[in-house]
Amino acid sequence: MEQVTPTAVISKRVRELRERRGGMSAQALADRCAELGMPSLKRQAIANLETGRRAMVTVEELLVLAHALDTSPVTLLMPDPGDELAVTPELSIDPRRLVLWLAGERPAEGLPTVRFERSVVRARWHRAAYDAEQRANQADRSARLARKDGEEQEADEYLQERDRHLQELAGILDAMLEAGSDVPAINAGYARMMIRRRWTRHPDGIRAVELPGDGEQG
User: Fold this and answer.
1) By three-state DSSP, how is residue 208 classified?
2) What is the dihedral of CA 47, 49, 53, 55, to 10 degrees?
3) Is there a domain that residue 12 lies in?
4) Which residues on adjacent β-strands are paired with residue 85?
5) Is 171 inside a domain boundary?
6) How many C-beta atoms surround the C-beta of residue 23 within 10 A?
7) Nearest CA to 116 among 124, 179, 182?
8) 144: helix, coil or strand?
9) Cβ–Cβ < 8 Å for 68, 104
10) For 72-118, how does the pLDDT look when each residue is reduced to its tens digit (9 = 90+)?
11) What is the CATH classification number for the domain harbouring 29?
12) What are phi and psi of 124, to 5 degrees?
C-alpha cells in the first residue's frame, strides 16, 4: 500500500479535474481562483502544484481550488484506491477512513471516544437540520406538482410528509438551542409554520431567511 502526501494527492486531483472540464487550462483555473478572491494562485503556482514542485497547499487554497473546480474539498484529498493519505510519517489514513473522519463520523484512528462524539455534535446537528429541511422541500415541491395536476389527495399526503420533516427539523433546532449551539437559518415560510403550529419550544431562537417563492401550503 503506497503512502502519498496530501499535497501530492491534491496536485493529482486538480490536474485530473481540470482536464475533465473540457481541457480547462491552468490559466483558466487561475483566473477562476482570482475571481474567488485568491489571485496568488496564478498559472505558474498551479503548474508548480501539478508537477510536484510546490510542497504545500494551504487550507484556504484547498477550499478555493475545490470551488473553482466545482467539486468538494474531500474529493481533492482522496487518494487512489489502495493508497493511504500520509498526513505525517506517523499518521496514514485509508480513503474510507478519511471520508468518515472529515465527515465527523469516525476519528482518524481507533474507535470514537466520548470526547470525539462531543466535539463533532455541532457539525452533525447542522447536517441533520440541512437534511430534514431538504426532505421537507422535496415533499413540498411534490405537493405543488400534485395539486397542479388536480391530485388533491396525493398533494395532502405530500404535505403531511413535509410536516413530519419540519417537526423533525424543529426538534433538531430545539436540541441545538438547548445545548447552546448556533442554529442555521431556515426557510422563512417553514419558520413561521413551526412557530404558529407550536412545533418548536424556542420560537425566539429560530433564524429565518426569505427565499424566492417562500410560502406556506396547507
Assistant:
1) strand
2) 160
3) yes
4) 4, 93
5) yes
6) 8
7) 124
8) helix
9) no
10) 999 999 999 899 999 999 999 999 999 999 999 999 999 999 999 99
11) 1.10.260.40
12) -65, -40
